[in-house]
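Sanity check

After download, print the first record. It should look like this:
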Amino acid sequence: MQALRGLAWLLALQSVGELMTRGLSLPFPGPVIGMMLLLPALRWRVVREPVSACADFLLVHLSLLFVPVGVGVMTHLSLVSQYGARMLAVIVLSTLAGLAVTVLSLHLLQGRPDPMGKEGPDA
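Expected structure tokens:
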């Protein structure tokens, strides 16, 4: 029952995100807005505990979510054989770009002085 409540919270926040996206003509997808709304909502126990139960349930059954992807790949195998090398190149390059941005962000943030006045992780 708790997991269903969590799923209801997730779907409600996604719906609110969709409404905001369409109503305000935002350039972001509704589920992204819903996730941004979920972040502050997780501070409340009435949201956090059911969403946690739902997340646990989804993680246990995560392998089932890959079945439609596998079926889609098998259905469009001719497209994969035609564009597979390009798709692999895009996946590798975008992964490397994401890693590079993460590393640069980490280096920039490590170089900034701590606003609390602490010196490093030992302080």
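If your output differs, re-run the checksum step. Summary of this record's structure: The mean pLDDT is 88.
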